[in-house]
């Protein structure tokens, strides 16, 4: 028995679709998407290229044409920026701040995420809502009371005091991110560990948290980038030049009435270089960690 195909009649006054029209429309849509992506890529990369060009120019050449490539490549701006900005000291301080912020935030957020996802915490929903609220509020609201408190505790002009502030500001988002990872871990693991006599801390340290290492890697990368680029808390609570992080090195190139844009561009390359390299090395794991955690 053979199947027959019945052609639907075309209503009067309606021209039939010519062959290939749908394909042309699909190709046009795909081309539009690529055009939008190219424009966005140029919008994101263009300022970085301009900064790279200006790092090799003097102020006169920057003033005449700030967007053109340099006529001659000179490393004088990089040498002067490294010396005047004291990048050897500020990069060391920022490295200490990043490591302390990453370790402390992972410990605090990891334990909090374990409690909210694997234990029966009274009022756990209210705690999650509080974390959402805490991550949404602007940090400038807490500046005045926090400064008075840190002054009483002698934590101003102290790297550890700045690291504790980063723990408090980064922990809400990190806890929510890690909680989304831990919620996908089956309860059978924790129940089997409890039957073997393991305590809650042992279950968290040996069973649950090691399974969420992509989430910890994502949190570590985000916290490291935030603490490396952060300027507001650093300039407020650190006053001694020998303790300032790398984000404050730009202050060395600004006078009261002018700014040396060549040195500032070279300093921006020093500051962005480690961040870009770190992200390029870990970008696949970073993106997979965000998507597998359910936060997009």
UniProtKB/TrEMBL annotation:
Domain ABC transmembrane type-1: 91-282
Listed name of the protein: Carbohydrate ABC transporter membrane protein 2, CUT1 family
Topological category with respect to the lipid bilayer: Multi-pass membrane protein
GO annotation terms (biological process): transmembrane transport
Domain of life, per lineage: Bacteria
Pfam family, one: BPD_transp_1
Keyword Transport belongs to the record: yes
Parts of the chain that traverse the membrane: 34-56, 94-116, 128-153, 159-182, 203-228, 261-282
Protein source organism: Micromonospora coriariae
Keywords: Cell membrane, Membrane, Transmembrane, Transmembrane helix, Transport
Family per similarity comment: Belongs to the binding-protein-dependent transport system permease family.
One GO CC annotation: plasma membrane
PANTHER family: ABC TRANSPORTER PERMEASE PROTEIN MG189-RELATED-RELATED, SN-GLYCEROL-3-PHOSPHATE TRANSPORT SYSTEM PERMEASE PROTEIN UGPE
Location of region: Disordered: 1-22
UniProt subcellular location: Cell membrane
């Amino acid at each position: 028995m053979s199947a027959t195909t019945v052609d639907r009649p075309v209503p009067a006054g309606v021209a039939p679709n010519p062959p290939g029209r749908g394909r042309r429309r699909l190709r046009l849509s795909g081309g539009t998407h690529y055009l939008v992506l190219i424009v966005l890529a140029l919008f994101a990369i263009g300022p970085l290229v301009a900064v790279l060009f200006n790092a090799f120019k003097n102020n006169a050449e920057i003033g005449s044409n700030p967007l053109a490539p340099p006529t001659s490549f000179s490393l004088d701006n990089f040498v002067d920026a490294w010396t005047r900005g004291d990048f050897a000291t500020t990069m060391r301080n920022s490295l200490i701040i990043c490591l302390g912020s990453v370790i402390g935030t992972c410990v605090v957020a990891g334990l909090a995420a374990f409690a909210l996802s694997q234990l029966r915490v009274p009022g756990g929903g209210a705690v999650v809502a509080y974390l959402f609220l805490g991550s949404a509020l602007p940090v400038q609201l807490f500046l005045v009371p926090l400064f008075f408190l840190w002054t009483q505790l002698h934590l101003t002009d102290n790297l550890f005091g700045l690291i504790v502030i980063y723990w408090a500001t980064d922990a809400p988002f990190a806890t929510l991110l890690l909680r989304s990872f831990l919620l996908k871990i089956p309860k059978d693991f924790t129940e089997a560990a409890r039957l073997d006599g393991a305590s809650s801390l042992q279950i968290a340290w040996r069973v649950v948290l090691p399974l969420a290492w992509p989430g910890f890697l994502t949190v570590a990368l985000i916290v490291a980038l935030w603490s490396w680029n952060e300027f507001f808390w650093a300039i407020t609570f650190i006053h001694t030049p020998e303790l300032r992080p790398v984000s404050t090195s730009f202050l060395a190139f600004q006078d009261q009435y002018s700014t040396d844009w060549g040195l500032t561009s070279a300093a921006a390359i020093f500051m962005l270089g480690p961040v870009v390299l770190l992200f390029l090395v870990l970008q696949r794991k970073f993106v997979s960690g965000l998507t597998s955690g359910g936060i997009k």
